[in-house]
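DOMAIN: structural biology
WANTED: fold as tokens
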Amino acid sequence: MKILIIGSKGFIGLHCVDYFTKNHEVWQCDVVTDYTTQNYFVIDATNADYTEVFKDRNFDVCINCSGAASVPDSIKNPLRDFNLNVTNVFKQLNTLRKFSPSCKYINLSSAAVYGNPEYLPIDEAHPCHPISPYGRHKKMAEDICEEFNKNYQLKTCSLRIFSAYGQGLRKQLFWDLYSKSKTNETVILYGTGNESRDFIHVSDVVQAITVVIENSNFDADIINVANGKETTIHDACAAFYSELDDTTKFQFGGEKRVGDPINWVANTNRLEEMGYKTKIDLESGLLSYVTWLNDNA
């Protein structure tokens, strides 16, 4: 297959490049200047134009890993988040419509579209009530995918990724735990520790993308990408520090952070019916992440 990965220099994008390059013709696209990588396009970070990317090239699959990925930043800079997560998705699809209408388009969305759930586990039919600009903009991007599917018959699919982690990630919970442990004997965290997430290692995210490419109808499909296992933040922190060291202590200050949901765990039946099976549990995933941190951070 001829695969285009937009946002190829980002966390999930880099892992997609590494995986798909083994067996496919991979083209990359990002805002980072790169003079050495073949089949690579640089996009203007402030006013993206995808014409040269799609013109005269018929891709089989386009994986959109680009966009902003920070709830706090979306609150501070909502226009930037909107441009990266909504406007650029529209631009990509509108250019696909003109030059490569048969291409399968995978939009990496987020569980943030759900907000605080009405029931657990969360299936794809769960109402969407996002509580942050980031979550709302991700939902808008999903709606744009549906718009181009229904009006122009583009093959689109949105993946609602839950709490992805792994080698290369330099933000969010586990990176925060690592960074704070370097200067503090006791790490203070938001919340109570009873909040929960559904963690998925980035290698399993790539595996999910693979089974979606092979099995999705691409009829504006919505698919949860997670492992269907609820883990409290307290237990996740304890598991991380047990791999990192035995000395760091942590406690919770009780303060809630704006835009963060309380509990998450996904219903992954739809993804599993396509052939997905968890390969990396949280313990082994954290071990590999800590190994990477010790070698690279």
